[in-house]
Write a structure and sequence with these properties.
Number of strands: 19
Shape: globular
Strand order of the largest sheet: 1-2-6-3-5-4
Helix content: 25-40%
Largest sheet: 6 strands, mixed
Radius of gyration: 25 Å
């Protein structure tokens, strides 16, 4: 792999078959946003790409959790033109097009991660950083123009970019980006729920998250073996699932999430969740055979030595460069993998199992047990079990309480520090004012979103006399966190 610098931007390149491919990678994504500005990086990408003329070669752009990429392939002169156009567009975004591009984003409806992985990340980290993956935010039409300007100035410059190429830099290549300093990030992201537990959420299928070191070769191989076992058991033996999806999510140096997501035949979500958990526990307890480990090593060797893997390797090196890691080339990684023993892989998975989060669709009640046979704890939304004795209490309308036992159980308490909502199932959601990440305004109603993933509705249908609660929220929460309900929201 070769390393050059053009206009202050590091350029990584290696020869690969096919036409020249380029990816201008910026070290920013959804995790660098806030709930209030969620979608701003995607909006920047759309505004930049919207300035390009019609190009007769392959080109695209994408925004993930950690990186934004502008990509193309074609003749060298086409690559040079594309990169020049993108850089110049980022220097002078057409902010007058924000309203139209917001509509396009609403139609696209994209997310930075699949719904199950996004929910697992949100549960682990709350409504911040990679935990934002589960949310759509206020809506693309509610992103402040100031947030667009700030995002471009903070992230889209030469100091936060790397260009990767599947061949030497073409003649005339320029990257006219402004200079800048790479943004400083916290070394670690706060963890709200370390595990191990299971919980219900509005997801289409079960999923599992394991926290650990993404450079841990033993854990990597253990998860690969687990994925293959699940494919044999859940798909081939029981016919309950088609796809076993795997993902890795970088959170910070030396840490991240490995997720497994299994789709499920309708009505079989509980059984799929139980098999997912049972296979994980069994592998962590009993380990794997030498043959299973050898099979995964063979698969890794085939993937790493495939010449078509060059673009992937270049992106891996770019990510390490952007986020302060150390890139290990394919040969180094293969050599390290061959040193892993079955016992080491089992121990790595057993350690990660202590962090396991299992999410299942609402209404699913799986029988899942820990290696010692005790039930895996079930997590519920409310962390508080009792309402405070002080503060003002609000209840649903009397008529609703007369005819509905659920309505009789609902109570809202508001005091000088925050809000508590006693829900029909007995749990209590609590949002402190200093942990509010957004307040949706719809006339006299409010929905308050907390960093801990709780949200509390102050709506007239539920609390007809909630005006004092609304006034308390408006007085306590900064105006910058309040926004009008999106005009692009789908209605029934």
């Amino acid at each position: 792999m070769n390393h050059e610098v053009i206009d202050g931007v590091p350029v990584l390149w290696a020869e690969a078959p096919g036409p020249l491919e380029a990816a201008l990678v910026f070290g920013c994504g959804a995790r660098d946003e806030s709930f209030r500005t969620l979608g701003v990086t995607h909006l920047v990408e759309h505004l930049a790409m919207g300035t390009l003329p019609r190009l007769h070669h392959e080109h695209n752009a994408s925004v993930g959790l950690t990186a934004t990429e502008f990509t193309c392939s074609g003749r060298p002169e086409q690559v040079v033109e594309f990169l020049d156009l993108v850089c110049r567009a980022l220097n002078a975004l057409p902010l007058d097009r924000i309203e139209r591009e917001a509509g396009v984003l609403a139609a696209e409806g994209g997310r930075a991660a699949d719904p199950v992985t996004g929910e697992l990340l949100s549960h682990r980290y709350g409504v911040q950083g990679v935990g934002l993956a589960a949310y759509l935010g206020p809506g693309p039409d509610r992103i402040p123009v100031e947030a667009v300007r700030e995002t471009v100035a903070r992230h889209f410059h030469a100091g936060n970019a790397v260009l990767v190429l599947t061949g030497p830099p073409p003649a005339g290549l320029r990257l006219p980006l402004p200079a800048g300093e790479r943004p400083q990030r916290d070394a670690t992201q706060p963890v709200l729920h370390p595990g191990a537990s299971w919980y219900q959420e509005n997801v289409p299928s079960p999923g599992l998250a394991l926290h650990g070191d993404l450079d841990d070769d033993a854990l990597f191989l253990a998860v690969e073996v687990l994925s293959n076992r699940l494919r044999e058991t859940v798909r081939h033996q029981h016919g309950l699932s088609y796809d076993i999806g795997r993902d890795t999510v970088f959170v910070g140096p030396g840490q991240g999430e490995r997720t497994l997501v299994l789709d499920a035949r309708e009505g079989q979500e509980q059984r799929v969740a139980e098999l997912l958990w049972a296979e994980t526990v069994q592998l962590a307890r009993d380990g794997m055979s030498e043959e299973e480990l050898a099979e995964e090593l063979a698969a890794a060797r085939e993937a790493f030595q495939d010449p078509r893997s060059t673009p992937f390797e270049l992106r891996e090196a770019a990510a390490e460069l952007l986020f302060g890691g150390e890139y290990r080339d394919a040969d180094t990684r293969l050599d390290s993998l061959t040193r892993v023993t079955p016992d080491q892989a089992r121990e790595a998975l057993a350690g990660a199992l202590r962090t396991a989060l299992l999410v299942v669709p609402c209404g699913t009640e799986p029988d899942v047990r820990q290696p010692n046979g005790t039930p895996l704890p079930k997590y519920s939304c409310g962390t508080d079990r009792q309402l405070p004795t002080a503060g003002r209490t609000f209840r649903p309308p009397l008529l609703a309480r007369l005819f509905s036992s659920n309505a009789r159980r609902i109570r809202l308490v508001v005091d000088g520090s925050g809000l508590w909502l006693h829900q029909p199932d007995g749990t209590v959601c609590h949002v402190r004012y200093d942990e509010v990440v957004g307040v949706e305004v719809d006339g006299e109603s409010r929905v308050v979103f907390g960093r801990n993933s709780c949200f509390i509705p102050l709506v007239s249908d539920l609390f007809p006399d909630a005006a004092p609660a609304v006034a308390a929220v408006d007085a306590a929460v900064p105006e910058s966190l309040r926004y009008q309900v999106s005009a692009l929201r789908a209605t029934d």
